[in-house]
Design brief:
By secondary structure, the protein is of the alpha+beta class. It has a domain at about 170-290: Glucose Permease (Domain IIA) (Distorted Sandwich), CATH 2.70.70. It contains two helices and twelve strands; from the N terminus they run H-H-E-E-E-E-E-E-E-E-E-E-E-E. The longest helix has about 90 residues, at about 70-160. The radius of gyration is 69 Å and the shape is rod-shaped. It starts with a helix and ends in a 7-residue tail after the last strand.
Length: about 290
């Protein structure tokens, strides 16, 4: 019985609490809603007041500005003059800019025209200097080559001092353009060299430095050595006993032993032992005594 009463009291208390909470929520919500509505109303009223205030001010200022016609006209004239002056100023500035640009272009053209002849003169001068320099170099090279040639010629002239290939008496002279009598052939014949008398096996020496170009057994003059010299000269040593001292292609010096005197020359076999010596210049026979010094 008591427990039922207690349960009823609890249920009743809970119902009262629930009712009280709901009432509280309704009250708070109503207050918030009224506050929000009041806020919006206040904002709208404020905005309307501000708009009205600005509108009144604009109307007043406009009335003051338009109240006096002369002032309005003066203002309009001033604005027009300012606009005119501004337009004029802009046009003048554009025109002045064009004039300045044109003047600058003309100055540049004049400057370029003035500079071009100077540039051409400078280029011509440089070309002339270059040609002169090249001519000087060419002349210098020619002079150097000429000097070198002269030195080489002098050197050749100095070195070409032929000596007697063997010491002895000339028993038969050079006779290219006349005839001499041959004891062996028993007739008158030409003689393209000189015969230098010397004992058999006497050493024969090179008359000048050169290169041995041939060693042969000539059917007329027997064992023969041919030496080539500079400046187109060539010497021949014939009627030798032997030629074993040198070889073909060997370079010999002046006075170097090249062979010995013998009796191998068939055309001069009856003559006393001697060296048959010939000299040629560019393939032409010359008198050996004319170049021996």
């Amino acid at each position: 019985m008591r427990s039922d009463r207690r349960r009823d009291r609890r249920i009743k208390g809970n119902e009262e609490n629930t009712f009280s909470l709901k009432n509280t929520i309704y009250i708070v919500g109503t207050i918030l809603a009224l506050g929000i509505i009041a806020f919006f109303i206040t904002v709208m009223v404020y905005n309307n007041s501000v708009d009205k205030l600005y509108s009144d001010l604009e109307t007043k200022e406009l009335g003051e500005l338009t109240g006096n016609g002369e002032r309005t006209n003066e203002t309009s004239n001033t604005i027009e003059e300012a606009s005119t002056n501004l337009g004029k100023t802009v046009n003048e500035m554009v025109s002045e800019k064009k004039d300045t640009k044109t003047t600058s272009t003309e100055n540049e053209e004049v400057k370029e025209t003035t500079t071009t002849p100077k540039k051409q003169e400078t280029e011509k001068k440089e070309e002339t200097d270059t040609v002169k320099s090249e001519n000087k170099i060419t002349e210098s090279n020619v002079d150097k080559k000429t000097e070198t040639t002269k030195k080489e010629t002098k050197k050749e002239e100095k070195t070409l001092a032929f000596a007697m290939p063997v010491e002895g008496e000339v028993q038969k002279e050079y006779a290219k353009d006349k005839l001499v009598y041959s004891e062996t052939l028993k007739e008158w014949v030409t003689h393209t060299g000189i015969d230098i008398k010397a004992e058999k096996t006497t050493v024969v020496k090179a008359a000048e430095e050169g290169t041995v170009i041939a060693i042969k057994n000539d059917p007329r003059y027997g064992t023969t050595i041919i030496i080539e010299h500079s400046d187109g000269y060539e010497t021949r040593y014939a009627n030798l006993l032997t030629a074993e001292f040198v070889a073909v292609g060997e370079k010999v010096t002046k006075g170097q032993t090249i062979g010995t005197i013998g009796d191998t020359g068939a055309f001069e076999i009856l003559d006393e032992p001697h060296l048959h010596f010939e000299v040629l210049k560019n393939g032409e026979y010359e008198d050996p005594t004319s170049i021996i010094k």
